[in-house]
From TrEMBL:
Organism: Lactiplantibacillus argentoratensis
Site (Interaction with substrate tRNA): T105, R136
Broadest EC class assigned to this enzyme: transferase
Highest taxon above the source species: Bacteria
GO biological process, one term: tRNA modification
The protein, known as: tRNA dimethylallyltransferase
HAMAP family, per the entry: IPP_trans
Pfam family, one: IPPT
Reaction catalyzed: adenosine(37) in tRNA + dimethylallyl diphosphate = N(6)-dimethylallyladenosine(37) in tRNA + diphosphate
Region (Interaction with substrate tRNA): 39-42
Amino acid sequence: MTAVTKQKVLLIAGPTAVGKTALSLELAKRLNGEIISGDSMQVYRDLDIGTAKIMPEEQAGIPHHLIDIKNIDQRFTVAEFVSRATALITDISARGKLPIIVGGTGFYLQSLLAGYQFGPADNEPDMAYRQAWFDRAAVEGSDVAWMALKQRDPQAATAIAPANLVRVVRALEYVHTTGQLFSEQADASGNTLDAYTLCLTAERALLYDRINQRVDQMVAAGLEQEARWLFDQGGAMLPAGKGIGYHEWFPYFNGEQTRDESIAKIKQDSRRYAKRQLTWFRNKMSVDWINLLEHPELRASIDQQLASWLS
């Protein structure tokens, strides 16, 4: 198989309200980079406050991508993210700049780094097929899925560890839904990127306090009005209507809860989401953790690590 030249990509990951945007701007200036949003909600036009979207006047002249590319009634799938982000990485790299992906949607970031290959069926994934393999593996062990892949696509099985059940099942699903070999579509290892992933973190009490403050700031900036507009357009029936910061208002607009209860629910959901984000990055991805909020003196170490990686 022909060797693939790996493209350098910097990822800045972490939970909400941890300081990803500020660091990304600083590093983009220093490293001649362009920023690709890895956030599943910032793709939507007209939803600026609740998504904590960086506005044009705040971008400091740094090109930003995958922001404001969808209407609120349009779905944005992980398959589309991987496709668009991959094309952007190639384009940015070809222009001699560093692609910097910034976001907290862990599944999107993991899928990109793993080189997941998506067929046409990915817009409607065969969840029943996936779950059947997960259920079977829970009883018989993960090797049962890998052995099945080895029979159907030996080259793909050689490139994927038997213990990587998610990726094994994904390869099986690809063969099942497309009738094609997973290994023929791309390098089955999926590893075409030389990625360095920084994951920002903070002590939980501090992070939760920052989240609560951010929600208060969003409300003061007009979050209720933005959510009301979304509600009037169709609310929970829309793909964009499921986002945190929006759907919590809908019971209030329907007269089912108070305004204060809605705000409290946004804070609660945001804190829970941050906890899930941290768990995902800890368990699903290989990252370098750094706590700049409480240890700003560690900022210099980032430059040292990046210099070594880029050399």
